[in-house]
Amino acid sequence: xxxxxxxxxxxxxxxxxxxxxxxxxxxxxxxxxxxxxxxxxxxxxxxxxxxxxxxxxxxxxxxxxxxxxxxxxxxxxxxxxxxxxxxxxxxxxxxxxxxxxxxxxxxxxxxxxxxxxxxxxxxxxxxxxxxxxxxxxxxxxxxxxxxxxxxxxxxxxxxxxxxxxxx
Length: 167
Prior knowledge:
With 167 residues, the protein is of the alpha+beta class. It has helices at 8-24, 34-47, 118-124, 152-161, and strands at residues 50-51, 61-62, 68-75, 98-104, 110-117, 126-128, 133-135, 149-150. It has a 6-stranded mixed β-sheet with strand order 1-2-3-4-5-8.
């Protein structure tokens, strides 16, 4: 199938079918933009985490030892190179112990993935009243902080293991 020859309607149907199949496979949990759901799935599989309910505001997953993990992701494209992550709410309440950041390229390939303690997220984020939360960018000094751990290989291994087409 040559995608450039599909009509707008056919492309939208293909998008819907792809989202539905990803939900069926357990990769996505919502019908929203798949960036966050895909990152949460990758991280949970890579580290054996249990995903929290979608209504859990402070963390996305929990480890077997009880560590609360917040997962933030960004898809960087040719048109949008921003590495600004989603809003971290109630950061001062320490509702999570660890933040895992996943950066994808325009085709959902993992560019980078990092794990950092809550204290590092606090240090590098900025409170923005208009969003009622803290903003963190995955760039600059944050990426050279020695407390940052690169977890890209673990997530890439999961992505590769699940890249085989299933019936």
